[in-house]
Amino acid sequence: RLYFETALAACADIVDYATVCEQLKQTCQVKGKALFQPLRIALTGHLHGPEMNGIFNVMGKTRIQRRLRQALEI
């Protein structure tokens, strides 16, 4: 729960993959796969795929926030 709350808070103003990752690293003490895989799954529903930075650019703030809120509900 803390992971997705942190990611959602990091997306409050500017939605930037690097910013979200930095917040997750600091708050949740995660790195590597534990850092990016839950985020990828929450946003795309897949374990593998294109670069996350590109996903953030294509999806946009509203869609990313909606998917992160959905991940919190699970």
In short:
This protein has helices at about 1-10, 15-30, 35-45, 50-74. With about 70 residues, it is mainly alpha-helical.
Strand content: under 5%
Helix and strand composition category: mainly alpha
Order of helices and strands: HHHH
First CA to last CA: what distance?
9 Å
pLDDT below 50 for ≥5 consecutive residues: which ranges? none
- The general outline is globular
Q: How many β strands by DSSP? A: 0
Give the mean pLDDT: 95
- Fraction in helix: over 70%
Radius of gyration: 11 Å
Largest sheet: none
Number of helices: 4
Description of the molecule:
It is built from 4 helices and no strands. The protein is mostly helical. Helix 1 runs antiparallel to helix 2 (17-28), helix 1 packs across helix 4 (52-73) and helix 3 packs across helix 4 (52-73). It starts with a helix and ends with a helix. The model has no long low-confidence stretch (mean pLDDT 95).
